[in-house]
Amino acid sequence: MTEPQRWLLLVAYAGDRFHGWQSQPSGQTVQDHLERAIAAIAQHPVRVHCAGRTDAGVHALAQVVHFDTVVHRPASAWQRGVNAHLPPGIAVWHAQPVSRRFHARFGARARRYRYLLLVGAAPPAQWCGKVGWFHRPLDGEAMQRAAQYWVGTHDFSAFRAAQCQAKSPVRTVTAATVTAIPGGFAFDFEADGFLHHMVRNFVGTLVAIGKGYAPPEWAAELLTHRDRTRAAPTFMPDGLYFCGADYGAVPELPGGGRIIKVPHLAIDGEIAT
């Protein structure tokens, strides 16, 4: 019997077009569409595994995916061929064979998200679904100070959705930054893993601090209380992007193992990558 070959795909998608990443009976998730497209090329059912499962409305620029197949196809088939079977809003931008030891989910040492938030009197209609929005000025310095309390290993129960299925609320955050961009802010978070809604709950709390609802120290107090009801409401998913994962020093992988691609807002307001 032919030994299965494992393939790595890097996939981008517009999350506002689909029902999240994880397969559902509706068949309208990113995973559902991707598995059907790959199966059309492989001519057999395929199961894909990703680095980070995203909710409905959350985008990805560098979702890391792997699958196994016994058929022989060139890399172009798993990129251009698969893309020909995908709906608008999902695209494979890289494909390569990898060792069977590689695992998109369990091999990732860290994952990174960026949230783009525009601030202004009116919602950004032309980027509806692609950026978050808040109507009042925000104190960027206060938000940056607050985010630093989350760096390190902590119990993040205060930022965990009620339906979160993770066995432990403990995660290690290696980076949490708030950066001013034209018209708003970029929130960047990197950790060994994220709880359900954890980043959107981070952003909701930082926006509350930025508008003056509470001082930066509130971010630390929430960690201590471990009570989700004490933190701010979950922020909208629109501006959240999964930006990739870090697999350590693996020269044969894109980026040498650190597969990160982040969006930014150019001076004219266009979203670029």
Automatic annotation (TrEMBL):
Catalytic activity annotation: uridine(38/39/40) in tRNA = pseudouridine(38/39/40) in tRNA
Domain Pseudouridine synthase I TruA alpha/beta: 11-106, 146-247
Active site: 55
Alphabetical list of InterPro entries matching this protein: PsdUridine_synth_cat_dom_sf (IPR020103), PsdUridine_synth_TruA (IPR001406), PsdUridine_synth_TruA_a/b_dom (IPR020097), PsdUridine_synth_TruA_C (IPR020095), TruA/RsuA/RluB/E/F_N (IPR020094)
GO molecular function term, any single one: RNA binding
Keyword annotations of the record: Isomerase, tRNA processing
Presence of the UniProt keyword Nuclease in the record: no
EC number assigned by the record: 5.4.99.12
Record keyword Phosphoprotein present: no
SUPFAM superfamilies given in the database record: Pseudouridine synthase (SSF55120)
Residues that bind substrate: 113
One GO BP annotation of this record: tRNA pseudouridine synthesis
Gene3D superfamilies assigned: Pseudouridine synthase I, catalytic domain, C-terminal subdomain, Pseudouridine synthase I, catalytic domain, N-terminal subdomain
Family: Belongs to the tRNA pseudouridine synthase TruA family.
Subunit structure: Homodimer.
UniProt function note: Formation of pseudouridine at positions 38, 39 and 40 in the anticodon stem and loop of transfer RNAs.
Protein name: tRNA pseudouridine synthase A
Organism name: Hydrogenophilus thermoluteolus
